[in-house]
Design brief:
The protein has helices at about 10-15, 55-65, 90-105, 115-130, 165-175, 190-205, 225-230, 245-255, 270-275, 300-310, 320-335, 340-350; strands at about 1-5, 35-40, 70, 75-80, 80-85, 110, 135, 150-155, 180-185, 210-215, 235-240, 260-265, 285-290, 355, 360, 375-380, 380-385. By secondary structure, the protein is an alpha/beta fold.
Length: about 400
Amino acid sequence: MSVRTPHLAAVSALALAFAAPGALAKQNSCDDPIVIGTTISMTGPLASLTPGWDKVTEQFAEELNKSGGVMLKSCGKRVPVKFVIYDDQGNPATATSLHEKMATVDNVDVFAGVDWSFVVGPVSNVAEKYKIPLIGGNVATPALFERGLKYFWATPYPMTFNWDANFADMLKNVDPKPKTIFWVTQDNPVYKSVFDIWSKKHEEAGIKMVGSEIFPNDIKDFSSIALKIRAAKPDIVHINSFDNVAVPLVQQLRQMRIKAMDIHFPIASAALQQQTAAYGGIEGMTSVASWIPGVKGEYNEVIENVYKRAGVGLEATATNMPRFTAYLIMVQAIEKAGAVDREKIREALFRGTFKGPNGPITFDETGAPDTKTLVTQIQDGKFTVVWPANQATAKLRWPAPTWQ
């Protein structure tokens, strides 16, 4: 069960509509549902990265509640879970206001799932203010974990210092080996952090940087950048940005018949594939993902059941599983705490180790996780895992045939 609204203007009306007796959370209750508050960027510039996530959230609660919900030792029984869901429109101010409302009006027990570093930064201050444990989803910026907060954790796949870890390992093992790389980076804190860290690491591994461009969020014409890439003739083109803003870049790379061993676009998505199909699409590109069907790991059946009932595809993007993982870990933390008690939940999360879809997840003392991604490649229109080898669902096609 959940409460949803697509627009901030509708919050007051909906609050009245859903203010039924017993709807509000009560700490240490054994009779009321455990209430988890979250916001999703259902509309706005990041909506292409969150298709159907509200339905997935609702179905997650339904799946969990089939067995009675979360086991609470202090109650000696299972207690059902309920979500309160709002649309933050990818706007930090909206997300902050909505989390204030969930803390003071909806009286949620915990927060889980809110995404994007620039949104979660201010939202985490709300969690700290009200001492409500918060597990964010796609929050990859290390600086956010260096503020001494006591109620903030996140489950990004991955943190920026792990961003290219498996991709770099793959490049050490391919034949022929790439010697040059060209970076195209969105003017965004996460992607700039990725560039700062991994441009140096790739260089240290023997892959020389032959070009680097930072582009604004509202760019529509990438032709000048595409021309520079063509002139530099890099072995690797690393597109370091969100998917929706870089659609014209992919189109222009195809139109100019840019050749490379690999075009690496971490945030490749089904939406990007559809929008660039007429130009050859993203076939052959490598990307990253936290999990896709066929990968062995915990919760496989739960994940597939939830997404199937929600009518949402499990297309490989780096953003399709961090939110889901935030839900999974919050449930595990509540079970470890044994009660709907925020302080006990916080203690369970501190330096805790939890089960994740592609392996264990451990938090350090700052709330940062040690998550890593899987390297994927779009083969015959489908996302496949190609690295690490022990988790691969297909063999890497190298160099990428469609970019030759």
